[in-house]
């Protein structure tokens, strides 16, 4: 794998879930974190992590720009 890509997730509400998904034939959850408002997590895509799911209102910063996720329903 070349340079791993990092993302920065900043929670804009309590209870934002960050879920890491595995790489390979079967995609599975392999790690979860819960962030409260104002907390920041720096995450990286690795040989084991191919995707991340963000549930809740958060700002996600990456090399591709900034995206805001919607509030939890």
From TrEMBL:
Record-linked Pfam families: TrpBP
UniProt family annotation: Belongs to the MtrB family.
GO molecular function, one term: RNA binding
Gene Ontology BP term (one): DNA-templated transcription termination
Subunit record text: Oligomer of 11 identical subunits arranged in doughnut-like structure.
Ranges that cross the membrane: none
Keywords for this protein: RNA-binding, Transcription, Transcription regulation
Top-rank taxon: Bacteria
Protein name: Transcription attenuation protein MtrB
The encoding gene: mtrB
Native organism: Planococcus salinus
Tryptophan RNA-binding attenuator protein domain ranges (all copies): 4-70
UniProt xrefs under InterPro entries: MtrB, Trp_RNA-bd_attenuator-like_dom, Trp_RNA-bd_attenuator_dom
